Amino acid sequence: MLDLTTNWTGLLSVAVFVIAYVLVILEETTRMRKSKPVLIAAGLIWLLIGIAYAQAGHSDAVKPEAGAVIEEYGELFLFLLVAITYVNTLEERRVFEVLRARLVAMGLSYRQLFWLTGILAFFLSSMLDNLTTALIMGAVVLAVGKHSPRFVALACISLVVAANAGGAFSPFGDITTLMIWQKGKLEFGQFFDLFLPALVNWLVPAAIMHFALPKTRPAPVEDRVRAKPGAGWVVVLFAATIVTAVAFKNMLGLPPAMGMMMGLGYLQVLAYLLQLRGNRHNDDDMVLDSFAQIARVEWDTLLFFFGIIFAVGGLGVLGYLGLASQTLYTGLGPTPANIIVGVLSAVVDNIPLMFAVLTMDPAMSHGEWLLIALTCGVGGSLLSIGSAAGVALMGQARGAYTFMSHLKWTWAVALGYIASIAVHLVLNAALF
């Protein structure tokens, strides 16, 4: 491979990537969806790579590199397509509405609700993505805390930290952990060594914020919601799909995306049976259109992943990721480098950062791969804009939860970040 880090094509590619990422950051201002600039940037970067290799007479050397990136994205795309479809179906069957209604009707105090929503967010995000988890729990917080802006602000901070932390100890909880698992850097069960460090990451700031919460109790709100027929079966089949994906990976050595696609077949069969039953009983609530749930997948996010993965992969072909690996992982060492990457994820999206690390492929122990899974997963909690959960809650709780309200407690979140790393280094010392 050619070293193009000082060549005009390399420098221009970096400029293209930076411009595209600035447009991603300014999405709320420009109203341009984040996938659009990165798709253009990825195409331009690979165009420049093709020109450089053609001029050097080595065009055939680029195709295998591009093919490897396509294969990696394809596995991630199929996996996420199924997972998001199941989440959409759970929403359509009103599973999340039932959960919200029951929590709201419990009549708990603000402090009890703070802890309950945080605990649920922590565990839910190990199965769902942090964005979905934050939105579900955020609806509960807003429903019961509409007369207490202080409670809403603190509870939203807790939800962001809990959702990001919960995703760090599960291969299904975050895109970054999924990427590590699919790459074969860690086995499925090894991620659970991060359970206590991830829990500490949330518990430390939550315990500090507890004393700033109102001591009063909101009035209970009655909101009766019934799940649609088949909701329980969707939950069961989602669990069966995850088991199938794990079995394909661990027992057969096959890509977990194949198991997930088989799980999509489970859902399709259930939809067919519900369709027959609904038509027989003339019950529209019973009918489930699984293809409609696939159509509701957030395509902007999936295309954003494509653009980012291809753009970062292109920078790797140009030689920049090797240069970054030499500077960080060889110069500073894996532990400091992984901690720095985690802090960077509060400003830069953790997906390109993790893909960059995986592309660099530094020689690291299991303990270090767990560390980067932890730091890259929870580092985004340092700022409200550092994760999809924070950005979504700022929109959902507009005015009550803001960038500045989160920033006031960044020091507490940072203490949790430091504590989680310390717990991992001590608890899992044998893995380094």
Shape: globular
* Low-confidence spans: none
Helix content: over 70%
Gyration radius (Cα, Å) is 22 Å
List the total number of helices.
Answer: 21
Give the class from helix and strand content and strand pairing: mainly alpha
Indicate the proportion of strand residues: under 5%
How many strands? Answer: 0
Order of helices and strands: HHHHHHHHHHHHHHHHHHHHH
Task: Please outline the major beta sheet.
Answer: none
Describe this structure in words.
The protein is an all-alpha fold. The protein has one domain (8-431). The protein is 72% helix and 0% strand. The protein starts with 7 loop residues before the first helix and ends in a 5-residue tail after the last helix.
Distinctive features:
mainly alpha, 72% helix, globular
Could you write a compact summary of the structure shown?
The chain has 432 residues and is an all-alpha fold. It has helices spanning 8-25, 27-30, 35-55, 62-92, 95-104, 110-124, 130-144, 149-168, 175-183, 195-210, 231-250, 256-281, 290-295, 299-318, 320-332, 334-344, 350-360, 366-378, 388-396, 403-407, 410-427.
